[in-house]
Amino acid sequence: MNEEQTGEEQTSEEQNNDPLHGVTLKNMVTYLVDCYGWDKLGDWTRIRCFMINPTLNSSLKFLRRTPWARAKVEDLYVVTKWNQQHKAKRGGRSRSESSS
C-alpha cells in the first residue's frame, strides 16, 4: 500500500468519526430549534442571536462570523444527537426508568 492510499483511508476514517461531517450550520440550527425552540436555545447557549428577535438567517449570519458562538452550537448539536441516539437504543426510556 502506498502513502497516498494510507492518507485517503485515514481521511475517510476521520470523517466517519466526525459527527459534524456533512452537516451544515443551517441544518444544525434548524434541528436545535425544532428540538428546543428559540427560547431554550437562547437560555442554554446565552447567545443573543437566539434570544432577541431570532430568525434563522440572522442567527446563521452571526454564527458564521463568531467562532466561539458557532462552537457552542456545534457542541450542543453533537450532545443532542448523541442523547437522542442513545435514548432510541434504550427504547425511549430514561435512565431512572431502565434501572427500576
From TrEMBL:
Disordered: region residues: 1-20
InterPro entries for the chain: DNA-binding_VF530-like, SAP_dom_sf
Annotated protein name in UniProt: DUF2132 domain-containing protein
Biased composition annotated in UniProt, kind: Acidic residues: 1-16
Highest rank taxon of the organism: Bacteria
GO terms for MF: DNA binding
Species per Swiss-Prot/TrEMBL record: Candidatus Electrothrix marina
Pfam family, one: VF530
